[in-house]
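Trying the structure run again after the queue cleared.
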Amino acid sequence: MTNEMQAADFMGDDLIRIVTRPVPDPGPGEVLLRVAANALCGSDFKLWHAGAQFIAGHEIAGHVSAPGHPLHDRLCVVYIPMHCGTCQACAAGNTQSCLTVSSLIGWNRDGGYAEYVAVPENCLLPVPDDIPADLAPLLLDTIGTSAHALREAARHLATDGQRVLVTGAGPVGLGVVLAAQALGHDRIEVAEPNPARAAIAADFGARIVPVGDTENRYDLIVECSGAHPARNHAIAQILPKGVIVLVGENAAPWTIIEDKVFRRKDFVLLRTFYFPKGDFDANVELLRANRDRYARLVDDAFPLAALPDKFATFAQGRSIKPVLSFREAR
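Done. Tokens:
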């Protein structure tokens, strides 16, 4: 193996360069992963705009490259929250919210827009043989984040036969539609301004409603866009005893106006992040049960050299879940 690799450098000002970097040297408790696929994610837009200190990419699947290791050559996905495994949160199973370590692979250390990445051993999640590398990254944000949001919401819902609204039909929002159906919800509506994404949600069985529609109220609203108007709309349209789950991200401050709409009903406002490692097997089953529909989201696969152009296309909303794929180089 050569001591150099190709990697993407997010320079800022919407510029990505493909550069040569040293192959990482894993530290204690880490292994080297030969990246097979890294799915593009909208949360990387902020790095595209502002630049990244580290190699970006956090929806990673790859093969362990550590001769003699029990997982050598095994396809694994990378659980991005680094975690100690022993703090109060980790001991309770909430590995995504470790109280000791606050570092994310692809954000606070190098990630998967590269040929190789060093990964802590406890962040390796082995992928079953029936799941190909280009679909494996869906087990992370698209399935893991969406299903965790719904599982947490279920702990607070007070009624059966809930009417559900999903705001934003990006990969996670579409993942919410599929996971909600699998978890027994059959009255799912979606608000999404992008016609292509709304069409996929409709094909998945959701009813499309206008963005900002006030005709209906809901027992459960899953906000996946990160847009402040959508969050405010959720507060207005949630039924008493209903649950709002904030999944979408927005770094800009959000001000809640404590008016009578906010004050005069009981409701749960819930924020969820990623997923606990203990959900992984259930997430694998979601992918297996809906493989063809999840596969529809992966609408492009391309080599590293094409990433600068493909990321720009993705940022324009012209693709759903494109994947940087190294399969041609294997």
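The longest helix spans residues 141-154. Worth checking whether this holds up in the mutant runs.
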